[in-house]
Every structure is written in C-alpha cells, then in structure tokens.
Design a protein that fits this description.
Strand 3 (96-100), helix 4 and strand 4 (119-121) form a beta-alpha-beta unit. Helix 1 (10-40) packs antiparallel against helix 2. The chain has helices spanning 10-40, 47-58, 85-93, 109-115, 129-141, 191-194, 202-210, 234-256; strands at residues 61-67, 74-78, 96-100, 119-121, 145-148, 179-186, 216-222. Mean pLDDT is 88; it is low at 258-263. It contains eight helices and seven strands; from the N terminus they run ααββαβαβαββααβα. The protein is an alpha/beta fold. Helix content is 41%, strand content 15%. The chain has a seven-stranded mixed sheet with strand order 1-7-6-2-5-3-4, with helices on both faces.
C-alpha cells in the first residue's frame, strides 16, 4: 500500500507533522471566534472558506484552478481521492458538502463540518432517503453551492468508479437558475502520496499527509457547467457529468505519458 512508505517517517517527518499540527491548531483558534462574530452580526460568512484554504496550504497543497468555479446556485459533481478533497474544494469556492453520517461523530472534524453547513447522509438508512433529498433541496433553494462525490468512495485517481447519486432526485425539478458543474481533481504524479484508498484508516492517511515533507501540486478543473433541465432524469445528469470528468481524466493520463525527446 502507498502509505507503507510513510510508516517510518523519520525525524523530518515528525518535525513536519508537529509544525503543521501546531499551525492548524493556531489557525482554528484564530478563525472560529471571527466565524461566530460574523454569524451573530448576520453577515455573509467567509471564514469557513478562508479556513479551508489555509488548511490546504498548511498541509502542502499548491492549488492551480482551471476554469471558473460557480459559487452559488450550483451542484458540483467531483471525483473523489481523499478526505483532503474537502478543504481543497471548499477553500476555492466555499462550497458545502454532502458527507457520510459517520463523519458527523468524529471529534472536532464533525463540528467543523457543521460550521460549513455539511449535509450528512446515512447509507444504511434507506427509509430516510426522502428526508435527505429534502435537506439537499432546501440547501439548493437557499442558493448554496453543494458538492457531491457521486462515486461514493475514493480512488487512486487513475480511474473513475460508477457514479451513483440518488440525492440528485432533489433536482426533480431543479430549483430556478441552478446549474450542475462537473469538477475533476488532478493530483498528477502526487496521486500515490495523497489518495486515501485500501485499508488505510483516516488517522493513518492524516499522518501520511501531515508528515510528508514539502508541497504537492493539485490541478482542480472546473469543467463547463450544464443545465440539468435539459436531461431526462438524475441518471442522465450524473452520466453527463461522468462523461466530462472521464474526458478530463483521460487527457491528464495521456499528458503524463508524453515522452519529451532528449529528456
């Protein structure tokens, strides 16, 4: 497994982890009071986005934004590589997320997710799907930007799993003015360093990322949005999004295999 490489992080790894952990704690202590001040004053609250952007930077991500992200009245459908997709995407356009219910019970992380208006869903509670669809629809009617990872789990970034998005029944019919924007997250040669796959636990993945010396580059491709009203149902919507993300993935993999003469 890729994370086995980082089990013996060495002195540099431990120092890197300690510095980043300290910076994250200081960042949290700085941002949270301002978040609640803005909330009490009923002002548009930029602090979750600023916090997530800083988290990404502290952890080593150097993000290059490709295309134009829509920041409201949009459902973003993205490929899924790691829990770290959340600070990277949230830091760019301030999106909220649809996440599995277990995360709501994680110490600190669950609380932070609530501050960013995360919509928690239970995969086991089939009877509660209607309520979850209503939660998403209410968020969209309030003009939120909401990101869904329709693969339902993470990959190593070299493939796409089938897209499943029962929650997109919330788009039947779509709220006025709402668009769907596919998003392709490309870690390039750093896929193996960051992706969260296999038997790796959340603490192991966090340790691997925070103890990793140096930075890594990420290209986030905000692909052309489309009008969901032009598609017959939610399956057609996710199929269109998957086709566009697959094309971006194929282009990235092809480019990485180009051999430069003389090199």
């Amino acid at each position: 497994m890729p994370y086995e490489t980082w089990k013996g992080a060495g002195l540099l790894g431990y120092v890197t982890f300690a510095i980043r952990a300290l910076l994250l704690v200081l960042l949290l202590l700085f941002c949270v009071p301002f978040y609640y001040i803005w909330r009490m004053l009923r002002l548009p609250n930029p602090w979750p986005r600023w916090f997530l952007r800083a988290v990404s930077y502290i952890c080593g991500a150097r993000i290059r934004k490709m295309g134009t992200p829509i920041r409201r009245d949009v459902v973003l459908l993205a490929n899924h590589l790691s829990w770290f997709d959340i600070p990277m995407l949230g830091g760019v356009n301030g999106t909220s997320f649809v996440s599995k219910e277990e995360i709501a019970h994680w110490p600190i992380v669950g609380w932070l997710c609530r501050l960013n208006n995360t919509i928690f869903i239970s995969r086991q509670n089939r009877m509660g799907v209607a309520d979850q669809i209503n939660q998403l629809r209410e968020a969209l009617e309030e003009c939120w930007a909401v990101t869904i990872f329709p693969e339902g789990t993470t990959t190593d970034g070299t493939m796409l799993l089938p897209f499943k998005a029962p929650l997109l029944a919330a788009l039947n019919p779509p709220p006025p003015g709402l668009l769907v924007q596919p998003v392709y997250i490309d870690l390039g040669k750093y896929r193996g360093d960051v992706s969260w796959i296999g038997d790796e636990t959340a603490p192991q993945n966090a340790w691997r990322l925070l103890s990793r010396p140096g930075s890594f580059k990420v290209d986030i491709h905000y692909l052309d949005p489309f009008d969901p009203r032009k598609y017959s149902d939610r399956k057609a919507i996710v199929a269109e999004a998957r086709t566009r993300i697959q094309a971006a993935l194929d282009a990235s993999l092809s480019a990485s295999q180009v051999v430069v003469p003389g090199v």
